[in-house]
Amino acid sequence: MGLLIRKQNVFLHRSVGLMTLILSAIVIVAVVTYFSFFYIQRKNNSEIEEKKEQINNFVNSTIHEEFNSTEKIKLAGDSLAQFEETKQNYLYMVNHKLPQLSEHLTELSDANTHYRFFEVRRELKLIEMKLQNATKVEKDTKNTLELLKKDNLEHQKKTKELEQKYQKIRKTLLAKNFSFGPSIDKLEENLSEIEKTFDNYSEMAKVGDYVKSAEILKTLKKETVLLETAIKVVPPLYRNVKNIFPEQVTEIKDGYEKLVMDNFGFKTNFEKKITDIQTLIASDIVDLSELNFDEAKTTDEKIDQKINEAYDELELEIKSKKSVQSRLVKFEKFIKHARKNQKELLAELNRLNQNYTFNHNEMESAQEINESLEIIEKEFVEYKEKSENRLPIVYSDIDIKQQQQVKELGTIEEKQAKIADGIQGLWEDEQKAHKAVKLFDLDIHTLKRNLEKLNLPGLSKEYLDYFYAVNSEIDDLADKLAQTKIDMDEITKLLIDTQSDLDVLSEKTNDILDSASLTERLLQYANRYRLRYPEIADAATEADSLFNREYNYSASLEKIATAVDNVEAGAYKKIEDDYYASKIQTPVK
């Protein structure tokens, strides 16, 4: 029983503890909830008051004063309509939309007191969006009012500026109408149109219709700029066509007529050139009268270019005449000197052509030179005849042609000198050739005599054929030189070939002379060994056969020299040295 009572006491004690914990938790949650509701409620009240303050700011905005100040500006037409629309939109917002929002905020304040927080938060977001839109409307309204005021000031400023420009243009046209020539009527007509446009603009600006007046202003500014441009452009262009160009044309025409009287000719149709310039001047005047400035400028440039070309052509002919006359005397002497050289050259060619053959087109070249010289002489005579008979002369053409002919005459004299130098050496070359042939003949006879002095048993066919061939070459040379008309180019080639062949013949002859003489000495020297050395006897017999029967003196020498050297080393070298030493002391003639 006591145990049961103790268990019941424990259970009761535990139950009381659990209840205490639950009650504590409930109290904590209640406290947190209370403070949360209190915080949200205060926050909502703060936002409600803040938005009411924003609404009061809209109502008390200075924009109302700006409406009053803008109304004092004279507005009309589109400008007035824009102002009225802007004002109505803003006042509707302030007088209708904003009071509704203010009343709604009062209702939300009451709902917030009754803890309808979700409803309050939702509605505050919607009111925030509407207030942002109100802020935009206020900003746009201020911008529109500022723009209208700015337009008013800008139009006043531009009106004053345009009026000043207009008066300045008008004053310029009145004071300097003589400077505008044919353009004055059109300029005054345009000024009158600008005046009408300006009056229209002023009327629009005065009544405050700045929207429409802005469009008129664009047109007015464009017309004024064009007129200002015309005032700057026309006077210099008109001065050119009125004074400068006509004076230059008169000067060119007088200069041309004077030059024609002084025997000048021209490459172009100069009279047509003057007429073309006068036509362009007339066309330029028409363009100015129509205010066609681009065309007038282009025509002005063409006139200036053609006038400069005309001046240049006149100046060119004058300078060319001075140039022609300054070289006239020297040029004539140059021609005469070239002609004198040509006569002498042709005479010399004809004389030498009787005795010599020309191989370098000397006669043809001289004839070409003569033809070129005749053309120069002919053109010079034609120029002199024109000058003497006072016929028109295009001096620029004559000047260029004579400059070319001076160079050509220099080339002609160089060619004449080259031909003359070439033919002058023909006679000297002939004399040298005669002397060379005599020497050739003397040389071959000397070779022949030297061979005869040795009383050789004979000569090989090969040597004799070569000897007679060289001798024939010398005879042919002598025959060609003996002809009435000789070809020195051919003779010179033959001289070179004959000299070469004669040199070879001389070597062959000297080889025979030396080989034969040395063979005889060695055969005599070999006699001392004949009895003791049979090979010497055999070599001597064979060498004798080569010497006396085959006339092969070099082979004979080699045969006996080899045999002797085999018996007595160096014997041949000693005999050879003695032979050439004695030959130097007593050369063969």
TrEMBL record:
<feature type="transmembrane region" description="Helical">
    <location>
        <begin position="21"/>
        <end position="40"/>
    </location>
</feature>
<keyword id="KW-0131">Cell cycle</keyword>
<keyword id="KW-0175">Coiled coil</keyword>
<feature type="coiled-coil region">
    <location>
        <begin position="131"/>
        <end position="204"/>
    </location>
</feature>
<dbReference type="Pfam" id="PF06160">
    <property type="entry name" value="EzrA"/>
</dbReference>
<protein>
    <recommendedName>
        <fullName>Septation ring formation regulator EzrA</fullName>
    </recommendedName>
</protein>
<dbReference type="GO" id="GO:0000921">
    <property type="term" value="P:septin ring assembly"/>
</dbReference>
<keyword id="KW-1133">Transmembrane helix</keyword>
<dbReference type="GO" id="GO:0000917">
    <property type="term" value="P:division septum assembly"/>
</dbReference>
<feature type="coiled-coil region">
    <location>
        <begin position="335"/>
        <end position="386"/>
    </location>
</feature>
<keyword id="KW-0717">Septation</keyword>
<feature type="topological domain" description="Extracellular">
    <location>
        <begin position="1"/>
        <end position="21"/>
    </location>
</feature>
<keyword id="KW-0812">Transmembrane</keyword>
<dbReference type="GO" id="GO:0005940">
    <property type="term" value="C:septin ring"/>
</dbReference>
<dbReference type="InterPro" id="IPR010379">
    <property type="entry name" value="EzrA"/>
</dbReference>
<keyword id="KW-0132">Cell division</keyword>
<keyword id="KW-1003">Cell membrane</keyword>
<dbReference type="GO" id="GO:0005886">
    <property type="term" value="C:plasma membrane"/>
</dbReference>
<comment type="function">
    <text>Negative regulator of FtsZ ring formation; modulates the frequency and position of FtsZ ring formation. Inhibits FtsZ ring formation at polar sites. Interacts either with FtsZ or with one of its binding partners to promote depolymerization.</text>
</comment>
<feature type="topological domain" description="Cytoplasmic">
    <location>
        <begin position="41"/>
        <end position="589"/>
    </location>
</feature>
<comment type="similarity">
    <text>Belongs to the EzrA family.</text>
</comment>
<keyword id="KW-0472">Membrane</keyword>
